[in-house]
Amino acid sequence: MKTELAALEELQSLDLEILEHRKELSAIPKNLEAMRSDVTHVGELLQREKDRLTEAEQWRVDREKEIVLQNEILTKSKAKLQAARNEREQKAAQREIDAVRKTIQEREEEALKVMEASDQYRQAIEAHTKEFAELEAQLRESEAEARARMAELEVAIGKTATHRQELVDRVSQKTLRLYERIHKRLGRAIVHAEAGTCTGCNMEILPQRYNEIQRGDKIFQCANCFRIIIFKPPTDTEDQGDE
Ligand SMILES: [Zn+2]
Asked: Domain 22-160, what fold?
């Protein structure tokens, strides 16, 4: 029984190690996915800024075309003023000139405003292009690291198979089934009894039961958390050089 318990404890430390490896393995793709979505987000932001700049530039070009057009109208209006035969025609031509000048001024102000906005967009695009490139480089690096680490973990898990089977062979089917059932549910299935309590849940163990556990010739489960309790002699905590 004592060797079975020892094998069981060793099996547990191996299984807990495997469990840690598997947790790390499953976390890696999730972390990468979060990084990828960050990169995509910045990429989308950048594209939106580029679209906005294109739109602003188009808007400015339209305003400038209109200014050219209005200047042509202005030339014609000035000619009308020159050719005016009476005060009425003169006034009408002057009104036209004033209106066209006002339009030109408005379009020029609009074009200036949009140019200022375009400058800001360009600055933002520059900053985000840099950020995007850095994030992409980081992602490539993390992907390479992740691939290496995953391979390492797979190898580590694979290596435990033979040793695990050796340990399994030293434990009875009944005990193994009990252990695996608790391990699946709680992870740590075997705990020590220390100072009269179960270290799995800190519940006190009845003195009579504690004595039985100390003898170590039977499998005992905690009445509260159902973990398998193994007695751990207090002197075992420090190596006293008793070899
Ligand atoms: Zn317990």
From this structure: Helix Hairpins (1.10.287)
